[in-house]
Amino acid sequence: MTYVVTDACIRCKYMDCVEVCPVDCFYEGENMLVINPNECIDCGVCEPECPAEAILPDTEGGNEKWLELNATFSSQWPNITRKKDSPADADEFKGKDGKYDEYFSPEPGEGD
Ligand code: SF4
Ligand code: SF4
């Protein structure tokens, strides 16, 4: 089991999660973060920290797609361990449906 970041993170990117992860397994894309499923130790501390409720256990039904996305992009994007400023318009995208289709970007973020 691992935890995964879902599309609820897209364009919100609050980054409260990276501060609490004991094994620094978050990776930064242009407009969302992902978790490396091979590094995550399933401690669960990041899940309640996310204001967008974007972090879920991969055992919840329907999360296979997000597990695959987290596995793929955590090997391509840079590691991030410190909270930065979230996008100025982050709150406008919180809780919006269909963000993956509309806004997902495979481009990397800047990392630490
Ligand atoms: S706290 Fe939630 S919304 Fe913010 S970067 Fe982490 S997963 Fe994304
Ligand atoms: S569950 Fe724990 S180890 Fe996994 S990403 Fe969250 S804080 Fe990091």
UniProtKB/TrEMBL annotation:
Pfam families, sorted: DUF3470, Fer4
Basic and acidic residues: compositionally biased ranges: 82-102
InterPro entries named among the record's database cross-references: 4Fe4S_Fe-S-bd, 4Fe4S_Fe_S_CS, 7Fe_ferredoxin, Fd_C, FdxA, RnfB_subfamily
Region: Disordered, residue numbers: 79-112
Keywords from the UniProt entry: 3Fe-4S, 4Fe-4S, Electron transport, Iron, Iron-sulfur, Metal-binding, Repeat, Transport
Names of required cofactors: [3Fe-4S] cluster; [4Fe-4S] cluster
Domain 4Fe-4S ferredoxin-type, residue spans: 1-30, 31-60
Gene3D superfamilies: 3.30.70.20
Highest taxon in the source lineage: Bacteria
PANTHER family: FERREDOXIN, OXIDOREDUCTASE
Function as written in the Swiss-Prot or TrEMBL entry: Ferredoxins are iron-sulfur proteins that transfer electrons in a wide variety of metabolic reactions.
Descriptive protein name: Ferredoxin
The species this protein was found in: Sphingomonas kaistensis
Lineage: Bacteria, Pseudomonadati, Pseudomonadota, Alphaproteobacteria, Sphingomonadales
